[in-house]
C-alpha cells in the first residue's frame, strides 16, 4: 500500500504523500462544515441528513489515516463498507421520496436490515477473512464488496429516476402557475425548492454509480489478471509518474465520491440558509 510512513520507493512515497495531503485538506474542510451543520437551528436538515454527513466525515478521517499509515486490510474493508452503508442511506432517502407515508416505515426497516447485513459483511471481510496485505485481489472479498455497492448504486439510480420524474411533473405545474401570476411569491419559493431538490437527487443517483462502478471495474480486472498477492500489490502501488497520477485519481474516486457528494448536497447547497440563520441569530442577540 502507498502509505506515507512505510513506503519503500520514491513513486510509492510520492503517491502516499499526494493522497494523504489531499485527504487531510478535505478532512479539515469537512470538519469545519460539519461544525456548522451541528450548530444549525434552521431545520433545513433532518436527522438522517446529519447522520450521513457524520458518516462521510468519519470515512474521510479513516481514509486519511489509511493513506498515512496502514499495513493490513482491516481499515480498507472498513472504508469500503462505510461507503456501502452511505449508499444504503441514500437509497432510503430516495425510497422515502417516491413512496407514500405508509411505505416510509417499510423502507426504513429494509434499510436497517441492509445496514445489519453490511456490518456482517464488514466483520467477515475485515476481521474473519483479513489478509496480510491491504489489497489482496486474489481473494474475492473486495469484488463481493464492490459488487454489492454497485448493485445498491443501480437501485439508487432507478429510484432517483422515479423521484426525478415526479419532481419534473411538479416543476411543470409550478411553471404554469408562475406564468399565470397566481400566488407568485409562494410559487416562486416552491419552484426554487423543487429546482434544488432536482439537483440534489441528480447528484444522489449518479455518485454511487461512479464510486462503485470504478471500484468494481478495478476489482474485477485485478481479480482476473492476478495470480498471486504480489501481482495485486504491483497494480495497487505506483511504479511510475503516470501511475502515481492515475492511482491517486482512482483511490480518491473510490473513497471520496460519496462523502464529497453528501457534503455538497447537505452543506454547500444549503450554505446560504445556514448563513441566513446565523445572521438572524446575531441580529436577535444584538436587539436583546
TrEMBL record:
Keyword Transmembrane helix: yes
Domain of life: Eukaryota
Transmembrane among keywords: yes
Transmembrane parts of this sequence: 20-38, 50-69, 75-98, 110-127, 142-164, 203-224, 244-267
UniProt keyword annotations, A-Z: Membrane, Transmembrane, Transmembrane helix
Protein name per its UniProtKB record: Transmembrane protein
